[in-house]
Amino acid sequence: MAKIIIGREEEKAILNELLDDSVAQLLAIYGRRRIGKTYLVKTFFADHLAFDCSGAANGLLATQLENFSVRLAECFGIKKMETPATWQAAFRLLEASLKKNKTKKKRVIFFDELPWLDTHKSGFLSAFTYWWNMYAAADKTRLVVICGSAASWMIKKVVNNKAGLHNRITRSIRLMPFNLKETQAYLLYRKINLTRYQVLQLYMIMGGVPHYLNTILPGKSIAQSVQKVCFTKDGLLKNEFSNLYGALFANADKHIMVVRLLASKAMGLTRGEIVSGIKNISSGGTLSLVLTELLESGFIDKVLPFEKKSKDTIYRLTDEFTGFYFRFMTGAGVGSGWVQVQQSAAFQIWCGFAFENICIRHIEAIKSALGISSVYTEQSSWRLHGSKSKSGAQIDLLIDRKDDCINMCEMKFYNTEFIVTKKYAADLANKRAAFVNDSKTKKAIFVTLISTYGVRENEYKLQQNQDTVLMNDLFQ
What we know:
The protein is an alpha/beta fold. It folds into 4 domains: about 10-175, P-loop containing nucleotide triphosphate hydrolases (Rossmann fold), CATH 3.40.50.300; about 180-240 and about 330-355, no CATH class; about 240-325, Winged helix-like DNA-binding domain superfamily/Winged helix DNA-binding domain (Arc Repressor Mutant, subunit A); about 360-475, Trna Endonuclease, Chain: A, domain 1 (3-Layer(aba) Sandwich), CATH 3.40.1350. About 45% of the residues lie in helices and about 15% in strands. The protein has helices at about 10-20, 35-45, 60-75, 85-100, 115, 125-135, 150-160, 180-190, 195-205, 210-215, 220-230, 240-250, 250-265, 270-275, 285-295, 320-330, 340, 345-360, 365-370, 420-440, 460-465, 470-475, and strands at about 25-30, 50-55, 105-110, 140-150, 170-175, 270, 300-305, 315, 375-385, 395-400, 405-410, 445-450, 465-470. It has a 5-stranded parallel beta sheet, with helices on both faces. Strands 9-10-11-12-13 form a 5-stranded mixed beta sheet, sandwiched between helices. It is elongated and about 80 Å long. The relative contact order is 0.09. The model has no long low-confidence stretch (mean pLDDT about 90).
């Protein structure tokens, strides 16, 4: 079967632009482990790949140089190739090979897992930078792609680099998980036919990570697949969590502390609340670095509460698998009873929180369903702390619009139509009134219900609900 690229339309458009450009390009692609970076590069550039090599995890300098020379011999048909002693010598060999094979066609030189190539005191990064500045940047046929999963290294040395690579990166791509539409398309490509409700359930657990989706087998229910890959002794995702964070981050224990805390607070926490919840992490540079790396890797997101200042920023866990891991895969786990767990009230409550997370992740699809894609909006949340004299309230998703309106979104995960009861209608009215009173907004407030199968028509729905967004809309 010929390889194809599912989704990734924005990324493919960028790659096409780089191929068509008449100058040399240095592209950095970064993102979490298992997200499909290598597959994207090698598949899209299959007809243009002149040279590629990959760093070896925990490999010594000698190992990295030997692997580099082997790939050099394979890519350029060199029968006898001695292993260079330094990275400077290695890049001289690469340059000589490229010059012997001149072409007017765009050539891709791909360095995968760049952080692993840059071993301690190896001089890799300085040698690479010198080669780019002196040779590659002057050749309009060159498209150099660097890629890495180790977020700590990529952010420090590439994304925010102030030395050798400063202003050298011409384009960058942060590769994120599939959205729901891409996830369904990927499953169908693998001959896995599920309803959208089932795809949604699977997404709550695994998110849109291609490697995780590869563990799902045709002809198996979601419950069967999850039981096998997450809860059996040799399940493919049984030990994924510990491997994941350790591979991405230096001193990953601090990152794990933060995501564990955020996993226990569905609505998220401020920076100050994170510091209070984790006693042995400072509120200064250490926490800033941890939060930045988690944000850039797509594990958490931040949202500014409605009309608040940056110090009130709320950090939320958005990685589906991490949330699932802390809720169901730690401690005693569920053993062989995952099917039974799915029927429990605790699981249904968790699904409600997970669905809210997915809705917030798919904000552009929601805007499209509401017909406001072209309207400038700001996404926020709101919460009113309760006291002895008044009840608290919270809204997880507000869409503040430039056309003088605000969508107050309520997200409900049900296996049938959601029914607005008399009590729920009163709760909505009270929440809306509390928000207007607290925010002093003069904008029109539209109560928007986002539900899997919609909202049943009755008198209470008509009293409160101005807009309805369906599960199907999230797949558009």
